[in-house]
């Protein structure tokens, strides 16, 4: 999501509180209409297209090509930004404990018929089965996927955490000289995500999301 007045780019990683952040930033900016759920990665937003971004190893390139295809099919490529503005706009994202995030996405899919059809699951699909099929894919791609630019490098300036969403957003608002409170638009159940996991499920998440676990210091207990 692009906010010209704030000179800010918000990278909305799914299930990290981003809908509330998007809408609060829209209100603060005042020059854009609501465009909720802009789940483009920084790679998709970045207007620079060096040839090296297409010559990267397939393991790094293919997920972004799939994202480009998805955006083309949707007909909603999202707001664009000039290379000059991209270079100096503040780039912001929020991250979340990957074990918690996986459970949140699972619950989200099961309660939405459209998501269930898209993911090939039923309301009775268990978490272990869902995780085995979808960990590391689609909206459950590693969070590091969203944080990498077209040059293949981390490009986000400010990274907040879902676990301290209100406090971290207040700090972000202060950078813009605002004191806007963060609305909690999507209310999930407050339950212990760990109860969904078997030991093998927890180990699977640990392997698939090893890079972000190391980078952000997460573990299964928090």
From TrEMBL:
The superkingdom of the source organism is Bacteria
One annotated Gene Ontology cellular component of this protein = membrane
Question: Known InterPro entries for this protein?
Answer: P-loop_NTPase, Sulfotransferase
Give GO MF terms, alphabetically: sulfotransferase activity
Q: What is this protein called?
A: Sulfotransferase family 2 domain-containing protein
**Which organism is the protein's source?**
Sagittula salina
């Amino acid at each position: 999501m692009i906010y010209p007045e704030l000179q800010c780019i918000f990278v909305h990683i799914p299930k990290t509180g981003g809908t509330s952040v998007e809408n609060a930033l829209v209100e603060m900016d005042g020059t854009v209409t609501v465009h909720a759920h802009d789940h483009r990665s920084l790679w998709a937003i970045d207007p620079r297209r060096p040839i090296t971004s297409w010559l990267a190893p397939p393991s790094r390139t293919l997920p972004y090509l799939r994202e480009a295809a998805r955006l083309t099919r949707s007909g909603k490529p999202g707001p664009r930004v000039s290379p000059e503005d991209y270079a100096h706009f503040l780039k912001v994202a929020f991250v979340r404990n990957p074990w918690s995030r996986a459970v949140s996405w699972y619950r989200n899919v099961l309660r939405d018929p459209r998501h269930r059809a898209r993911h090939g699951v039923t309301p009775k699909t268990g978490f272990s089965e869902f995780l085995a099929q979808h960990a590391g894919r689609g909206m459950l791609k590693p969070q590091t996927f969203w944080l990498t630019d077209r040059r293949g490098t981390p490009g986000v300036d400010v990274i907040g955490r879902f676990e301290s969403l209100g406090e971290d957003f207040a700090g972000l608002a202060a950078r813009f000289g605002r004191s806007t409170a963060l609305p909690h638009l999507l209310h999930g159940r407050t339950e212990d995500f760990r109860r969904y996991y078997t030991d093998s499920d927890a180990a699977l998440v640990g392997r698939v999301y090893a890079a972000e676990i190391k980078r952000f210091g997460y573990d299964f207990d928090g």
